[in-house]
Structures are given as structure tokens and as C-alpha cells.
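pinging the channel bc i need a second pair of eyes. not urgent but kinda urgent?? the chain im working w is below, pasted from the shared doc
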Amino acid sequence: MLWSRIVDLLRLRSFVDATRLGSFAAAAKALSYTAPAVSQHVAALEEELGCALVIRGARGVSPTPAGEALQTRAERLLTDAHLAELAVREMTGQLQSLRIGAFPTGAQYLLPNALTALRRDHPDLELTVLHFEPPAGLAELAAGDVDAVLTHRYPGATWTAPTGVRLRPLHADQLNLLTPANHPLAARPQVDISDLRHETFISGTTGTPNRTALEIACAKAHFAPKVIFETAGYGVTTALVAHGIGIALVPALACPPANDSVARIEVRVQGEPLARQISLAHRPAEHAHLLLTLIRHLADDNADPSGQ
């Protein structure tokens, strides 16, 4: 049978990583091989299949139509092989590690209690937490480089999960309006996005999820937000708002409680609250006991950390 001749997982991994990352060099770095070795793996796979799988160019590699047909199926096969290994390791008591990716505020506010509970239930478990800004981390998850990724999707985000990855929704993280405490809107419990057309904003750079969500929300009220300060740090955002530089949309997880410096107000867009969806991305498998335990702890620990 054809697949009995080419089911060399190393060659498939080299091919998938080279086409996913765009070059033999990038794939080699991810796999801890040399670029020539990765190139040879792909060439051997092409010889066995009798067709070109990648287009080699000065700027890297890209899949041919045949390569695209193979890529999705190869990703599934590699994922299944990884899950089969983990299933055996868990069944025989060898599974001693869990690698989790997380976005910064999720790692700060959601993961600690969940990881503490998981380690309490499995005291010998070795936990590793890696930083990924969504949607980064999902490709690594599909490739088996991490076991789960705590991620979020802002309104307007267009990315989709890779083949073999499932998103388990945990809860909606509402986007609140942060204003100086003496701002005219500060005494209001709720505002509509249309009330903000004459305000100046602090937000992320163009193309970041937070900025995109702000722009889409304002567009529904037929105006473009005036962003006068760009920053990805919510601590910086809070400090600037407190000093009257502007206002900002900040997720509840990263939003400080109302105090003498800042006010926190619910935002509505056409009558609906504005929120980002927090999910745990994972690969479905029979061995998912640890991940299901993590999901349960994360779902139980979804209170607003600021206490508001």
C-alpha cells in the first residue's frame, strides 16, 4: 500500500513544519535539525509520492496544490500519532508533564488557581506555561509542541482553529470602558458606543485584536475612534487614563476596580455587551483526563478578579 511506504513521521513533520513556517530554516529550528536535513526529508517524501510537494524560492517554500492536499491530512496523522503516544503514556503512568500556552492576562488571573488545583490532584505533574498572544500558539498545539492553549477571540477576529484543534469556550470577558474618575461619563453605570464619538482613545496598534474590536464597535455607530496613544500594556493604559490622557476599552480580566483615579463603565453596542470569548484550545483525545480537569478548574474560576 502507498501509505505503508511513506508513513515516515519524521518526513511528514519536516514537510508540515516547512510549509507551515514558510522555510526549511524555520522548520529546522523548530525541529532542532539542520535546514539541509529538513530539505532532504521533504525531497525523499516527494520522491516516494512521485510529485513536487513544495515550491522552493529565494524567500522560502510554499506548498504546491499536491502539497496542500497532503498538508491537512499529514497534520491530522501527526496529531493522531502524538495523541496515541500520550494515551499509552497516561495509561501506563508515564505522563508526567503538561505544556500550556496562555495569553498574559489569562496567565495572570485564570491559570494560577487552576494550575494549583491541578497540581494538588496530580502532585508529580510537571507543568510548563508558555506565553502566546492569540491566535499564536494554535499552530504549535496542532503540531504537538504544546498540550493546551488558553486563548481569546475579540469581536471581529477572523482566525480559525487549525485542523485537529478544538476550542472549548470558558466564558465571555466583557470589555469595559475605563475613564478618569472625574470624566462626565464616570457616574453612569452603562454607556452606548455611540456616546463616545467625540472622545479620544488609548488602544493597541492598528491590527491588534483590541484595536480591531474598538474600530468595529465604533463603525456600527458610524464613526471612527480617535486614538491618540497606542500601547499593548493594560497597566500603561490604566495609568494614562488615570491622568486624563484618554479613555479605553479594557477587558474585565485586566481592568482595575473603580477607585479615586478611574471609573469603570459597561459598554453596549447596539444594545449588546461587548466581550472577548475566552477558550481553552486542545486536541480531542481519549487521554484527555488532565485537560478535562484543567477545563473544569478554569471554568469554575471565572470570577472578575477586580471584585467589581
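so The radius of gyration is 23 Å. and The chain has three domains: 2-89, 95-170+277-300, 172-275. — does that match what u expected or am i reading it wrong
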